[in-house]
Write a structure and sequence with these properties.
Layout (H helix, E strand, L loop, with lengths): L21 H23 L13 H10 L6 H12 L4 E7 L4 E6 L1 H8 L11 H4 L3 H8 L3 E4 L12 E8 L6 E9 L6 H21 L7 E4 L7 E4 L2 E4 L2 H12 L6 H9 L7 H15 L3 E2 L4 E2 L3 E3 H10 L3 H7 L11 H21 L2 H9 L7 H10 L7 H16 L5
Parallel strand pairs: 6-11
Antiparallel strand pairs: 1-2, 1-5, 3-4, 4-5, 6-7, 7-8, 9-10
Helix pairs in contact: 3-7, 11-12, 11-13, 13-14, 14-15, 15-16
Length: about 425
């Protein structure tokens, strides 16, 4: 049998598979994002069809949003997105870092439709309370997100499409909330996501200008972070864990610390650490922060405003809601440095005691919904007692309290 001719251009080995297009990669990444959000939603929510809870209303809502930092950005949001919100097919929404809607604006008819699913000011739209949705998922992931129709976890929300972007404090990097546009399928276009992302960046720039940027001094963000963020002199420095611990300790002792005192705060009194180890760490830190770090005693040579001190200040002023809003989590949560552990415990205990003693249902709800309060039986029981009988989410709070009581009543296995 004759051998068939082989074309001269035939490759001598198998050709590589064509590389996936960028559009395919983006679509794949988005599908994974939505799937992960659905898994988080399913773990937190009892059913795929429900109403998001309304936590704030009336004078309480008015006072809360007047005091919120994003209130200063609302004129800008309305300027950039207000024309969309007035056309009868879009809503402009702004929420805080916990997913509480502060403003929901737009044509009256569209707002009426949104009210049927509790997409209203005062309602909680984070993933734990509303499932996969653009503002809630943007808060969870820390970047802009577009959620289209059936990608919403809650069936009641699936007729809608939305795009949202988080907004951060330009000095500290602290999450303030998110800006969102919500409407029909026409919002699935890529330019809608780009629009809300650009609006969020413009808001951050305005907030920085309002506060004079970072030229006014240094700030240290260490709540809820394993590595602190130091901002000042036109710089943003992400510190390593040991350097984070050193600056947190020095900021808490403006009078300065001796080498022995700083070593005890970092390593403990029982652990023998050669002095050269501490000097080497301080030398590396000084290369990062320059003249900000002084010696004899070790101290900060300029005022450094810490987010932890901001929480303490709000507590001292009696403004519990503001203190909770500033509290982004435990101080350097993974640190085992004895001095940091003590500062972390003191701040968390003071704030928790204030929440428990307030009888404020909103404050108790904020603590109960946080990772550090979700298993706190005493807080859940106080919240149940503080909620009026008519509260829409009272039943879910009672169920959670009952589950925690049953858990803590279990005998410890030996």
């Amino acid at each position: 049998m004759p051998v068939p001719d082989v074309p001269r251009t035939a490759p001598s080995r198998t050709a590589p598979a064509p590389r996936p297009s960028r559009r395919f990669l983006v679509a794949s990444t988005h599908a994974e994002l939505v799937a992960a959000s659905w898994r988080r939603s399913a773990a937190a929510l009892p059913a795929p069809e429900f109403l998001a809870p309304v936590e704030l209303s009336g004078p309480e809502l008015d006072g809360y949003r007047r005091a919120h930092p994003l209130s200063r950005a609302m004129p800008l949001f309305r300027e950039l997105l207000g024309s969309l919100a007035d056309d009868g097919t879009h809503l402009l929404a702004v929420c805080d870092a916990a997913g509480r809607m502060l403003w929901v604006e737009g044509h009256r008819g569209l707002r009426g439709r949104a009210e049927r699913m509790n997409f209203v000011a005062g309602a909680r739209w984070d993933e734990r309370h509303a499932g996969t949705n653009a503002p809630g998922t943007a808060l969870a992931l820390g970047h802009a997100v577009q959620i289209v129709a059936a990608e919403h976890y809650n069936r009641l929300v699936q007729p809608w499409t939305c795009a949202a972007a988080p907004v951060h404090d330009p000095r500290t990097g602290r999450l303030l909330g998110a800006v969102d546009i919500t409407g029909g399928d026409h919002l699935a276009a890529p330019h809608c996501l780009a629009l809300v992302r650009a609006t969020a960046r413009a808001a951050e720039a305005q907030l920085a200008a309002d506060r004079g940027g970072s030229a006014g001094g240094w700030s240290l963000s260490a709540l809820g972070r394993d590595e602190a963020l130091l901002t000042g002199a036109g710089r943003r420095i992400r510190l390593g864990r040991r350097h984070s611990e050193i600056l947190v300790l020095l900021a808490a002792h403006p009078e300065g610390l001796t080498g022995d005192g700083l070593a005890a705060g970092l390593y403990g009194c029982e652990r023998a650490v050669p002095p050269v180890t501490l000097r080497a760490e301080l030398s590396r830190l000084r290369r990062l922060v320059g003249p900000l770090l002084g010696s004899r005693p070790y101290r900060l040579c300029a005022v450094v405003e810490t987010d932890a001190a901001g929480v303490e200040r709000e507590l001292a002023a009696g403004d519990l809601r503001a203190a909770l809003d500033r509290y982004d989590g435990p101080l350097l949560p993974l640190s085992e440095a004895p001095g940091v552990c003590r500062l972390r415990r003191l701040l968390e205990d003071r704030l928790r005691r204030a929440v428990l003693g307030s009888g404020d249902a909103g404050a108790l709800q904020s603590w109960a919904d946080s990772p550090w309060g979700e298993d706190d039986l005493e807080v859940w029981e106080r919240l149940l007692a503080a909620l009026p009988e008519s509260a829409a989410h009272r039943r879910s709070v009672a169920v959670r309290a009952r589950l925690l009581r049953a858990t803590f009543a279990q005998p410890v296995r030996r």
